[in-house]
Amino acid sequence: PRDWRYPGVLACLRQLSREGVRIGGISGGPYLMAAAGLLGGRDFTIHWEHAATLLEAFPDLTPRQARFVIDGNRITCGGGIAPLDMMHVLIAERMGPDFARRVSDWYLHTEVNEPTAPQRASLAERYGAHHPGLLSVLERMEETIEMPLDRAAMARIAGVTPRHLDRLFAVHLGTTFLDQYHGIRLQHAHRLLKQSPPSVSEIAVATGFSSLSHFSRMFRAVYGMAPREARRD
Predict the structure, then answer these.
(1) CA–CA dist 104, 110 (Å, integer)
(2) pTM (2 decimals)?
(3) Domain 123-232 classified CATH 1.10.10.10?
(4) How many CB atoms lie within 10 A of CB 63?
(5) What's the burial of 154, exposed, middle or buried (CB within 10 Å: 0-12/13-18/19+)?
(6) Confidence class of residue 1 from pLDDT cuts 50, 70 and 90?
C-alpha cells in the first residue's frame, strides 16, 4: 500500500467521510484509510503483513489483532477469507441472523469466526514447538524487534538458565538463540523494505541493528542480496 500514488482517491475518501458515508478497507486498504486521515481515534485492523508498514508511517495509530473491526461507519478487515466472516455480520445487521446464515451456507462458509479471532496461526503452530518457556521467548522476540533483549533477560522470561535456553532452541528448533532472533528481525526488515518508505538506515535501526554495515552483512547472508537490492526487486 505504500506505493499507492493516487491522491485523488484520498481526497475522494475524505469527501465521502464528510458526507457520513460508511467506508471500509480490506487487507492493505486500511493503510489508505489511514493516509486519508480516517482512522484517528478509531478501532481498526489491517492484514498482519501490512501492520509494520502502517506503524512506521503512522506511529500514532495502533491496529488491533483481529480478523475484522466494525467501528460505526468505519469497517476494516484483514483480508484473506476473513471478509466472509465480516459479511456474515454485516448481512445479519441488516437482514437478520437467519438470512445471514443462509447466505453463509450458500458459500459453504459453515464456521463463522468471531471478529477477534486471530489472523495468524498460533506460535506453537508457526514454529512447531510446544515448550511454554520457549514460546514465551519467541513471543517476546517478535515484540522486541527494535530493542532486542539479551540472552540472560530472555532466559529469565522462560524461567530457565541461559544455558538451558540454548538447549531449548537447539532441541526444539534446531537453531541457536541468536540465529532465531536475527531471523525474526531480518524477516521484519524484509517486509519493511518491500512495503514502507523509510530509508535502509532507518529500517536497520527499526529492526535493532546497531550499524548499517552489520545490518547489510546479516541481510545479505540470509537473502543473498543487499537490502537496497531487495527494495528494488
Answers:
(1) 6
(2) 0.74
(3) no
(4) 23
(5) buried
(6) low
